[in-house]
Amino acid sequence: MRKRAELNNLDVGPLQALQERKSLGEHVFESLKQAIIQGNITAEEWLVESHIAETLGISRTPVREAIHKLEREGLVERQPRGGFTVLGLNRNDIEETFGIRGVLEGYAARLAAEKHNKAELEPLEKKIEEFQKALNQKKMNDLPAINTEFHDLLYALSKSPKLISIINGLRDQIYRFRKVNLKEEKFAITSNRDHRQMLQSIRKRDAEGAERLTREHILRGREIVLREFDKQKRDRRKE
């Protein structure tokens, strides 16, 4: 039986002081979207329009607007008997997204190796050390954000606004995958090792090596997510 989404951790922000250019529905949409991406609202939970409106102290109209937009973005689905549930990941989405990421981010690493100047590599090194410190302290919940910041810095080194924009179009899906990957300490250790090797190749201006290492890094992540997906699928069948 699907459960109703709990909204206690929903960060709705200052709803009473909205920006004029942004509707209330847009704010609710962003809040719900981030809650889904962050995992505060999980797959198969119900989004109950009246419950959300009551929790936020607003009318149902902006909530309805927000849920319909979530549906258009493929984050929730309408149920035959009414209402909406949060969509989980599916195997095709996982394989397709990681395949696209491998090509795009590998190319970004190639460009970074070709175009960087020495000083621009220092922030990448600091992120690797920040990740390692959090890992040593078992602060696993901090790892996805640090990981995202490392990759953002890497994209920026490509100095290709169009490429960065295309990669950022996958940003929300990528973050959901990182949340899965970096729960596993063994993979988190491997991930930071990969980052060090990628940085070394970029520093040596080994464009081919940087691209190859980045693709391999992403494909390792794909295998972890697929393994977790298959495990959850087996567990659901046993219920």
Description of the molecule:
With 239 residues, this protein is mainly alpha-helical. It folds into two domains: 24-86, Orthogonal Bundle (Arc Repressor Mutant, subunit A), CATH 1.10.10; 91-238, Four Helix Bundle (Hemerythrin (Met), subunit A). The chain has ten helices and three strands. Strands 1-3-2 form a three-stranded antiparallel beta sheet. The radius of gyration is 20 Å and the shape is elongated. The termini are close together. Mean pLDDT is 87; it is low at 14-21.
| String of helices and strands | HEHHEEHHHHHHH
- Model regions low in confidence, pLDDT < 50 over at least 5 residues: 14-21
CATH architecture descriptor text of the largest domain: Up-down Bundle
Strand order of the largest sheet: 1-3-2
Compute the average pLDDT.
87
- Proportion in helices: 55-70%
Going by helix content, strand content and strand pairing, the class is mainly alpha
In short:
This protein has 239 residues and is mostly helical. It has helices at 24-38, 49-56, 60-72, 91-115, 122-136, 143-157, 161-168, 171-181, 185-203, 207-238, and strands spanning 46-47, 76-78, 84-86.
